[in-house]
Amino acid sequence: MDYGLLSSILHAILVASTPLVFAGLGALIQERAGVLNLGIEGLMIVGALAGFATALSGFPLLISILAAALAGALLASIFALLVLRLYANPVATGLALTLFGLGLSALAGAQYVGQAAPQVDAWNIPGLSHLPIVGHALFSHDPLVYLSISLAILMWWFITKSRAGLILRAVGENHSAAHALGFSVTRIRFLAIITGGALGGIGGSYLTLVQTPLFVEGMTAGRGWIALALVVFASWRPLRVIVGAYLFGSVSIIQLHGQALGVSVASQWLSMLPYIVTIGALVIIAGRGNFSHKAPGSLGVTFRESK
Amino acid sequence: MKKSNLVIGLLVLVAVIAAVVSFEPSETKKTAAVSGKVKIGFVYVGPVADAGWTYEHDRGRLAVEAEYGGKVETVFVESVSEGPDAERVIAQMASDGANAVFTTSFGYMNPTIKVAQQFPDVRFEHATGYKRADNVATYSSRFYEGRHVLGLIAGKMTKSNTIGYIASFPIPEVVRGINAAYLAAKNVNPEVKFKVIWVSTWFDPGKEADAAKALIDQGADILMQHTDSAAPMKIAEERGIYAFGQASDQAAYGPNAQLTAIIDDWAPYYVRRVGDLMNGTWSSTDTWGGFDTGMVALAPYGKAVPDDVKVMAEEARKAITEGRLHAFTGPVNKQDGSPWLKAGETADDGTLLGMNFYVEGIEGSLP
Predict the structure, then answer these.
(1) How would DSSP label each residue in B325-360?
(2) Strand B38-43 and strand B100-103: pairing?
(3) Domain B34-141 carries which CATH code?
(4) N or C: which end of chain B has fewer CB within 10 A?
């Protein structure tokens, strides 16, 4: 294999994985606060449309990303209202959020089908982007790739090192105890849901702004569900979300290249491979006792303030 | 506590009402000889706005409405997954009083046959399948005729002699397209190579884009696709290479990249069949139309196509339309070297419809 191709493959892996990193982190922050949100797919597609529409109107990348984040956060706030205030069942509400987001984006996005967004330029990191192989593969990306990695590190710091993160975890592990200590469970969960929604929206916008880059309804094609699985895979740890997303992305991209290189394995097997590897990794993680892999104690449990 | 019960109660109530409303059998009774207003149902596998396969079927539906005006009523359901869900949707349309139902994807074949047995008075039209009944007709287009022309253009225009092909599922329809394009390309360029990636989906723009990038990274300078989104076209445009549109004119996504596109024009067929239904001459038929029926068309050639290539492509199209040229004309061997067509022999429709082998020269194996 020539090195140019290797470099291209690595580059493609990072691009294919980035939406999953954003969406996975978005699901993770909510779950650490004890909120199970199955609406990630809906948040992604709404963000995908919002980011695309904004970019098409001629706004710079930063504004497009903010629009996507805002759209995701707005949709998530509906979920927050239903689940936190009206005590609706989170599983049913999350599924409804997915369906609603897909429908809403299809309706509002019909006028954008057939249009092309401006291309996002790569940020070449000085000194590193000219290195052989890894230069193009790792240090010549659009800003969102770097942002996704920075966010994961930031979230790791926030959850494990900061006081606010400790409170967030307390709410997720045992909301009654957190409440007894005087923390507002509802407000903290609301903030987590809004943040998660914004990240889901950015993840979706990466598809329409960089990876594909066009808008068609339903184009997230199940990535929101993969993001949810990634959180379990990552045993609720931000940095492992990156590992999981890149593993999934690697297998997805390598199987495509394998086919084009004429590797004679049935393509159905190759298509299954990312999922098989993910399940396999899950089993290995679950089988190792020294890894903490427990779900937050209050995950998906409705909190009602008792009088 | 009470508030949550109220919310859940309301949701259940809404769900029950919705279920009752949607499952209430319609009062309109179907008659064998259709008179009065005719109701036609369409079942789509993707969204109408997919800018490809489903979009063209919906244009056919609109053509029916335009042709017969107030005499027909059309209904459609989009994004119906192939499988049990399809059966439910098709049965629903039939029981809602549709006189005919067009099911527009290969995977609807068995559901269509099954529902047709339950509704003997309703006529069904299944696209791209091969199972028929007294009230089930099948129709498809000879897209391979279009693929032949695409293959000629690709063979002439490639500089790297590598054509990338993004394929969906190894069904005869797709295999036929690959073979037809390859034979044509090989004919004008003996050095040409096809790299095929099977993505196991009809519609996942992200995955189609990734496959397009993989093919380009491995040296392909012209892309063909048999999947439904315009993502590969968009990637080709970005990378500065060429591609062919699929099912619909995709020049909007690749103003420089699109060389031409195979357009599925279902309008002539749909208008004719609905007309047959209205004047009582409908019968279960098997239609396989090509350039000659207008069911397969080509988008205007892109500006990158040189004049001599245009002339060659137009000649081939004309010859196929007039029946002077067949895309599968011998001598052709199967991939394993065993002879398939003798010199001058053309393929019969039966073999084409069940095609499950690559022709000689294509690398890799069918999944």
Answers:
(1) --SSBSSEEBTTS-EEE-TT-B--HHHHHT--SPBT
(2) parallel
(3) 3.40.50.2300
(4) N
Q: Give the position of tokens 């723009």.
A: B205
Give the number of A-B residue pairs with CB atoms closer than 8 Å.
130
A295 to chain B, closest Cα gap in Å: 26
Put simply, the answer to whether B218 touches A217 (Cβ < 8 Å) is no
Q: How many Å apart are CA A114 and CA A101, to the nearest integer?
A: 20
B20 band by pLDDT with thresholds 50, 70 and 90: very low
Using an 8 Å CB-CB cutoff, list chain B residues near A268: 200, 367
Query: Across residues B118-139, what is the average pLDDT?
Result: 93
Write out pLDDT tens, residues B211-231: 999 999 999 999 999 998 889
Instruction: For chain B, give the number of residues.
Output: 367
Which band of pLDDT confidence, cut at 50, 70 and 90, is reported for residue B75?
A: very high
Its pTM stands at 0.83
Which domains are delineated in chain A? Answer: 3-287 (1.10.3470)
Domain B143-263+297-353 falls in which CATH fold? Rossmann fold (3.40.50)
Which chain B residue is nearest to residue A262, measuring alpha carbons? B364
Please determine, for residue A127, whether its predicted confidence score (pLDDT) is greater than 60: yes
State which residue of chain A sits closest to B163, comparing Cα positions. A260
- Cβ of A267 and B198 within 8 Å? yes
Establish whether domains B34-141 and B143-263+297-353 are of one fold: yes
A111 interfacial to chain B (CB closer than 8 Å): no
Asked if B206's CB is within 8 angstroms of A19's CB, the reply is: yes
Nearest C-alpha neighbor of B143 from the set B165, B128, B125: B128
